[in-house]
Amino acid sequence: MKKIGIIYGQERTFPQGFVEYINRMNLPDIVAESVNINKVEQGAPSPYAVIVDRISHDVPFYRAYLKNAALNGTAVINNPFWWSADEKFFNNCLATKINVPVPKTVILPSHDMPEETTEESFNNLSYPLEWNSIFEYIGFPAYMKPFAGGGWKSVYKLEDTTDFFSKYAETGRLVMLLQEEIVFTEYYRCYCVGGKHVHIMPYEPRNPHHLRYSAGFTPSEQLYKEMESIVLRINQNLGYDFNTVELAIRDGVPYAIDFCNPAPDADRNSVGEENFAWVVEAMGNFAIEKAKAFNPGNGANNLTWGAFVKHSVHAAEKNDEQNI
């Protein structure tokens, strides 16, 4: 029997719906359940063919467990090694190389020095930064947000330089992004599953949280196809099995605003019944696909690696061959 597990925190509707969807199929050799951990021994295999990760970004112990499981062949969704390395600024940098429009963005050092550092730790950092050049590049109004994390935490709208320095002082040890404001006419949140299935949802971030999926617009056929292409390109390059991409439409152009969401909101009460049904079915079917492909004991790496990593490895191997 191949087991599909899901590891999660406070959420309930998606994990429960995911497990129930798979088990309702009564597949002869596949069962789904909530992951149960009572011992984590180095190098020991996990009892799961597939694990869907919804919480390890908040619980380092779970991240270590998932890396060990992946080492032993479990297909972990999403790849815990890449998720550990990824962050929003790199994603924006990568977008500039794969023809995805993104807001003008710079990264800022934390306002307060990290723990156990002194001024001598920053010999390579010029200070003050070239603030005038930065502000000219980004413009105002602007947005400032952490370079890693999510949930709309510590996000600031900045009206001018005085506002910037006042809010920047509040960010403490957070490393922040300063980003151009995209004044949009439409906004979409897009699920991507398995790097091949896309679900585009009209989304209004200016509404109260419970009304954000109630938007009075829908994309044209051309815009839908363009957004679908962007979502697939982003996720295939990053290598995420499950992610959301947020797209803001300015002058008809979709700008990728936020696309580092490897544990995206999938709560029935938040996304609504139609979107919830889609994401449960898509994730359930994808997990079953991964479980069927699982071959215990063959030492295979069953993680998804994005095109960026694969191309980098291929280039390194080619370089090694030329130097032999």
TrEMBL record:
<dbReference type="InterPro" id="IPR011761">
    <property type="entry name" value="ATP-grasp"/>
</dbReference>
<keyword id="KW-0067">ATP-binding</keyword>
<protein>
    <recommendedName>
        <fullName>ATP-grasp domain-containing protein</fullName>
    </recommendedName>
</protein>
<keyword id="KW-0547">Nucleotide-binding</keyword>
<feature type="domain" description="ATP-grasp">
    <location>
        <begin position="92"/>
        <end position="289"/>
    </location>
</feature>
